[in-house]
Amino acid sequence: MAKLRVEGHDSLIRDTVSNAVINSSTSEYNIYMSRHRAREQQSDELRTACKEINTLKAELREIKSLIKKVIEK
């Protein structure tokens, strides 16, 4: 597997077999991974918030129906 430097970019290497461009900079990779983890965490927090909201909605519906039953008696 031969690798050639991409002209004008110090951290980019082209694999001559697959023609893929590979970034060989570990600092750029670490920055990418930290951003990726931050997006994943934000997505998880959003999912958790949506689940909590849906739980609260269900509980509110239940409370509302119980109040209606008490008023009817």
List keywords for this structure.
14% strand; 1 helix; alpha+beta
What does this structure look like?
The protein has 73 residues and is α+β, with helices and mostly antiparallel strands. It contains one helix and three strands; from the N terminus they run E-E-E-H. It has a three-stranded antiparallel beta sheet. A hairpin with a 6-residue loop joins strand 1 and strand 2. The longest helix has 47 residues, at 26-72. The model has no long low-confidence stretch (mean pLDDT 93).
Please give the number of β-strands.
3
Strand content: 5-15%
Q: Helix share of residues? A: 55-70%
Mean pLDDT: 93
Tally of helical segments: 1
SSE blueprint:
Elements: E1 3-5, E2 12-15, E3 21-23, H1 26-72
Antiparallel strand pairs: 1-2, 2-3
Summarize, please:
The protein has 73 residues and is an alpha+beta fold. Helix content is 64%, strand content 14%.
